[in-house]
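user: can you give me the structure for this one chain? tokens are fine.
assistant: on it. calling the predictor now.
[tool input]
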Amino acid sequence: SLKENYTTYNQRLKNKDNQRQKKWEARKAEFLFKQEEKNKKIGKLFLSYKNCETEGITFFIDKIILKLELPVDIKVDWEVTTDTENKIVLIDFRLPNKEFIPKTKSVKYYVTKKEFSETFITEKEIDRIYDLFIIQLSLIVQNTIYTADSENAIDSIVFNGWVNTIEKATGHPKTFCIISLQTKKDELKKINLALVEPKACFKQLKGIAANKLSDLIPVAPILEINKEDKRFVESEGISKKLESENIAAMHWEKFEHLIRELFEKEFSSNGGEVKITQTSHDGGVDAIAFDPDPLKGGKIVIQAKRYTNVVSVSAVRDLYGTVMNEGANKGILVTTSNYGPDAYNFAKDKPLTLLNGSNLLHLMEKHGYSCRIDINEAKKILKNN
């Protein structure tokens, strides 16, 4: 009957509705579960940031850079490295080449000819735009991070800008740094970036770059960290698995011989020589290197510090004073530990090179040494001696 058909039809609709309701509830439960898991993860990362830990600071900076409103639709990439002890952040930024800049200046349509006519931006203007964009990017990235850093987890930022290009002489791909800028939070926050001339501001902050960034001339980064070197550890764990010697705990006389041999090998390839001039029981070594290279050589003052604490800016000032007194071309300060932001800030516009523990291990590996650095282990050993 009609009534039975209606009842059956109605029941079928109810069954379908119940099935849809169950599917919706299942999807809702799945969504709420994923939402809760994501919120837990974000909560842990935020707590990590508040505690000034590496994972949290890296997450925080990634989110800040992702939200930057760049003037054009370009692809950028970056990598963040943190020194939580000294509140220093290193940002290695992959920069675009100038090809991303639109070359068309204007387009006109001529009705009588039924054709378009284009005018183009000059190469000189493209170079100017590129230089300005890169310098502004280095400033705005740092300023935005400082402004958002409500927990004061960051005191200093180093921005290294890297480009991928094809070397004209060989045709092979090459990656190198073309801009390096270090700032301190209290220093940059005093500057009104909305009204500055970017190049003048960059120069005042002692940024490093060629006169024309568009020429893609390599420069030495103010700070560079070998992120893949697992032999440099701040905590216990890895050290037990390594059989090589911990040079941060090495006797100062043995450390002196090691440094002398290391730099003799480094400079001997060019016919240079190294002479130890002074040693101290605190693990310090002074040496003079003579590099015969007519362009980048000359007299070089080398100071090495077998330290387990952060090297203060006073040690960098002392090195600079020695370089001036000796009439040397350059000074190199090497340590088994690390440097604070003031040390890098002082050295960045002077003929000084700061090599931290990671840099030292890289140099030693280059010349066949098998060593490691474990600061915590060294502190315990030196305390007991």
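assistant: here you go. The domain at 232-384 is CATH 3.40.1350.10 (Trna Endonuclease; Chain: A, domain 1). Residues 36 and 372 are 42 Å apart (CA to CA).
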